[in-house]
Amino acid sequence: MTTSPSEFGTAACHELLVRLAGRLPDRLLWRLREWLASGAHSAVAALLPRALLRNRVGLTDDERDLLETAVAGHAPRKLLDAVLTLATADEPDVTFRPAPTADTTALCLLAVARGESGCTELRQALRGNGRHAQRVVLVRADGPRPWALAGTLARLLRAHGDPAPCVEVLPAGDPPAYHRAALAGSTLLWRRPEAPTAGH
Protein backbone atom coordinates (compact mmCIF):
# COMPACT_ATOMS: atom_id res chain seq x y z
CA MET A 1 0.00 0.00 0.00
CA THR A 2 1.48 3.35 -1.00
CA THR A 3 1.59 5.99 1.71
CA SER A 4 2.71 9.21 -0.02
CA PRO A 5 2.46 11.01 -3.36
CA SER A 6 6.07 10.07 -4.00
CA GLU A 7 5.39 6.33 -3.53
CA PHE A 8 2.23 6.65 -5.62
CA GLY A 9 4.36 8.03 -8.45
CA THR A 10 6.96 5.29 -7.93
CA ALA A 11 4.26 2.61 -8.11
CA ALA A 12 2.94 4.09 -11.37
CA CYS A 13 6.48 4.21 -12.73
CA HIS A 14 7.03 0.54 -11.82
CA GLU A 15 3.82 -0.54 -13.55
CA LEU A 16 4.68 1.42 -16.67
CA LEU A 17 8.19 -0.06 -16.79
CA VAL A 18 6.64 -3.54 -16.56
CA ARG A 19 4.40 -2.71 -19.52
CA LEU A 20 7.41 -1.49 -21.50
CA ALA A 21 9.20 -4.86 -21.36
CA GLY A 22 9.97 -5.97 -24.89
CA ARG A 23 9.39 -2.43 -26.18
CA LEU A 24 12.40 -0.59 -24.72
CA PRO A 25 15.91 -2.08 -25.00
CA ASP A 26 16.74 -4.49 -22.15
CA ARG A 27 19.77 -2.55 -20.93
CA LEU A 28 17.87 0.75 -20.79
CA LEU A 29 14.90 -0.86 -19.04
CA TRP A 30 17.18 -2.51 -16.49
CA ARG A 31 18.91 0.80 -15.75
CA LEU A 32 15.60 2.63 -15.24
CA ARG A 33 14.35 -0.12 -12.95
CA GLU A 34 17.60 -0.14 -10.98
CA TRP A 35 17.36 3.61 -10.42
CA LEU A 36 13.75 3.22 -9.31
CA ALA A 37 14.67 0.42 -6.87
CA SER A 38 17.50 2.59 -5.51
CA GLY A 39 15.15 5.47 -4.71
CA ALA A 40 16.12 7.66 -7.68
CA HIS A 41 12.54 8.12 -8.89
CA SER A 42 13.22 11.70 -10.00
CA ALA A 43 16.04 10.54 -12.31
CA VAL A 44 13.76 7.92 -13.87
CA ALA A 45 10.95 10.46 -14.27
CA ALA A 46 13.28 12.91 -16.03
CA LEU A 47 14.71 10.31 -18.42
CA LEU A 48 11.71 8.11 -19.23
CA PRO A 49 9.81 10.46 -21.61
CA ARG A 50 13.02 11.12 -23.52
CA ALA A 51 13.72 7.38 -23.73
CA LEU A 52 10.24 6.81 -25.19
CA LEU A 53 10.80 9.51 -27.79
CA ARG A 54 14.31 8.37 -28.70
CA ASN A 55 13.17 4.76 -29.17
CA ARG A 56 9.91 5.77 -30.88
CA VAL A 57 7.82 3.83 -28.38
CA GLY A 58 4.17 4.89 -28.24
CA LEU A 59 1.78 4.57 -25.32
CA THR A 60 -1.89 3.65 -25.00
CA ASP A 61 -4.21 5.99 -23.11
CA ASP A 62 -3.87 3.88 -19.93
CA GLU A 63 -0.09 3.89 -20.25
CA ARG A 64 -0.07 7.64 -20.83
CA ASP A 65 -2.02 8.08 -17.57
CA LEU A 66 0.65 6.02 -15.81
CA LEU A 67 3.40 8.15 -17.40
CA GLU A 68 1.78 11.38 -16.26
CA THR A 69 1.46 10.05 -12.70
CA ALA A 70 5.01 8.69 -12.76
CA VAL A 71 6.69 11.88 -13.97
CA ALA A 72 4.44 14.51 -12.34
CA GLY A 73 6.55 17.61 -11.70
CA HIS A 74 9.67 16.14 -13.33
CA ALA A 75 9.05 16.59 -17.08
CA PRO A 76 7.69 19.49 -19.15
CA ARG A 77 4.20 19.17 -20.63
CA LYS A 78 5.45 19.57 -24.22
CA LEU A 79 7.75 16.57 -23.73
CA LEU A 80 4.88 14.37 -22.55
CA ASP A 81 2.67 15.55 -25.40
CA ALA A 82 5.36 14.56 -27.91
CA VAL A 83 5.22 10.87 -26.89
CA LEU A 84 3.50 8.84 -29.61
CA THR A 85 -0.03 7.56 -29.01
CA LEU A 86 -1.14 3.97 -29.68
CA ALA A 87 -4.68 2.61 -29.87
CA THR A 88 -3.44 -0.72 -28.50
CA ALA A 89 -0.04 -1.84 -27.26
CA ASP A 90 2.18 -3.57 -29.82
CA GLU A 91 2.10 -7.37 -29.75
CA PRO A 92 5.51 -8.85 -28.86
CA ASP A 93 7.50 -10.23 -31.78
CA VAL A 94 9.44 -12.67 -29.61
CA THR A 95 9.30 -16.32 -28.63
CA PHE A 96 9.88 -17.84 -25.19
CA ARG A 97 10.90 -21.33 -24.12
CA PRO A 98 11.50 -22.97 -20.73
CA ALA A 99 14.79 -22.14 -19.02
CA PRO A 100 16.91 -24.60 -17.00
CA THR A 101 15.58 -25.00 -13.47
CA ALA A 102 18.67 -26.35 -11.71
CA ASP A 103 21.46 -23.96 -12.66
CA THR A 104 23.23 -21.92 -9.99
CA THR A 105 21.48 -18.69 -10.94
CA ALA A 106 18.02 -20.26 -10.64
CA LEU A 107 18.89 -21.68 -7.22
CA CYS A 108 20.04 -18.24 -6.01
CA LEU A 109 16.85 -16.62 -7.32
CA LEU A 110 14.87 -19.28 -5.49
CA ALA A 111 16.64 -18.59 -2.21
CA VAL A 112 15.80 -14.87 -2.41
CA ALA A 113 12.17 -15.43 -3.48
CA ARG A 114 11.48 -17.84 -0.62
CA GLY A 115 12.75 -15.26 1.87
CA GLU A 116 10.45 -12.48 0.58
CA SER A 117 7.15 -12.62 2.44
CA GLY A 118 5.25 -10.92 -0.42
CA CYS A 119 6.62 -13.21 -3.13
CA THR A 120 4.17 -15.94 -4.18
CA GLU A 121 5.54 -17.39 -7.44
CA LEU A 122 8.82 -17.52 -9.37
CA ARG A 123 9.14 -18.60 -12.98
CA GLN A 124 11.73 -18.18 -15.71
CA ALA A 125 11.95 -18.46 -19.47
CA LEU A 126 14.47 -17.95 -22.25
CA ARG A 127 13.63 -15.34 -24.87
CA GLY A 128 15.00 -16.10 -28.32
CA ASN A 129 17.28 -18.92 -29.38
CA GLY A 130 20.91 -19.89 -29.47
CA ARG A 131 23.81 -18.55 -27.48
CA HIS A 132 22.29 -15.11 -27.03
CA ALA A 133 18.98 -16.22 -25.54
CA GLN A 134 17.97 -13.91 -22.71
CA ARG A 135 16.80 -15.21 -19.33
CA VAL A 136 13.51 -13.61 -18.29
CA VAL A 137 12.48 -13.96 -14.64
CA LEU A 138 8.77 -13.68 -13.84
CA VAL A 139 7.60 -12.97 -10.31
CA ARG A 140 4.18 -12.76 -8.76
CA ALA A 141 4.21 -10.80 -5.53
CA ASP A 142 1.72 -8.95 -3.36
CA GLY A 143 4.19 -6.90 -1.33
CA PRO A 144 3.95 -3.10 -1.10
CA ARG A 145 7.18 -2.29 -3.00
CA PRO A 146 7.51 -4.59 -6.04
CA TRP A 147 10.18 -2.34 -7.58
CA ALA A 148 12.48 -3.11 -4.65
CA LEU A 149 12.09 -6.87 -5.16
CA ALA A 150 12.73 -6.42 -8.89
CA GLY A 151 15.92 -4.52 -8.09
CA THR A 152 17.16 -7.19 -5.68
CA LEU A 153 16.65 -10.01 -8.18
CA ALA A 154 18.16 -8.00 -11.03
CA ARG A 155 21.30 -7.31 -8.98
CA LEU A 156 21.61 -11.03 -8.33
CA LEU A 157 21.40 -11.73 -12.07
CA ARG A 158 24.04 -9.06 -12.72
CA ALA A 159 26.29 -10.75 -10.17
CA HIS A 160 25.88 -13.96 -12.19
CA GLY A 161 27.01 -12.28 -15.39
CA ASP A 162 23.81 -11.00 -17.00
CA PRO A 163 24.60 -7.47 -18.32
CA ALA A 164 20.93 -6.53 -18.83
CA PRO A 165 18.78 -8.56 -16.43
CA CYS A 166 15.09 -8.95 -17.23
CA VAL A 167 13.05 -9.29 -14.03
CA GLU A 168 9.31 -8.88 -14.37
CA VAL A 169 7.46 -8.41 -11.06
CA LEU A 170 3.92 -8.60 -12.40
CA PRO A 171 1.07 -6.38 -11.26
CA ALA A 172 -2.24 -7.89 -10.18
CA GLY A 173 -4.72 -8.67 -12.92
CA ASP A 174 -4.27 -9.69 -16.54
CA PRO A 175 -0.62 -9.21 -17.57
CA PRO A 176 0.42 -7.48 -20.83
CA ALA A 177 0.83 -9.57 -23.99
CA TYR A 178 4.63 -9.82 -23.61
CA HIS A 179 4.24 -11.33 -20.16
CA ARG A 180 1.42 -13.65 -21.18
CA ALA A 181 3.75 -15.05 -23.85
CA ALA A 182 6.60 -15.32 -21.34
CA LEU A 183 4.40 -17.07 -18.78
CA ALA A 184 3.15 -19.54 -21.38
CA GLY A 185 6.72 -20.45 -22.31
CA SER A 186 8.15 -20.45 -18.80
CA THR A 187 9.20 -23.01 -16.23
CA LEU A 188 7.84 -22.85 -12.69
CA LEU A 189 10.72 -22.61 -10.19
CA TRP A 190 8.65 -22.19 -7.04
CA ARG A 191 5.20 -21.31 -5.73
CA ARG A 192 4.39 -20.53 -2.11
CA PRO A 193 2.27 -23.46 -0.88
CA GLU A 194 -0.65 -21.27 0.22
CA ALA A 195 -0.63 -19.22 -3.01
CA PRO A 196 -3.49 -19.82 -5.47
CA THR A 197 -2.55 -21.12 -8.89
CA ALA A 198 -2.52 -18.21 -11.32
CA GLY A 199 -4.14 -18.61 -14.69
CA HIS A 200 -2.13 -17.59 -17.73
Automatic annotation (TrEMBL):
It comes from the Bacteria. This is Uncharacterized protein. It comes from Pseudonocardia charpentierae.
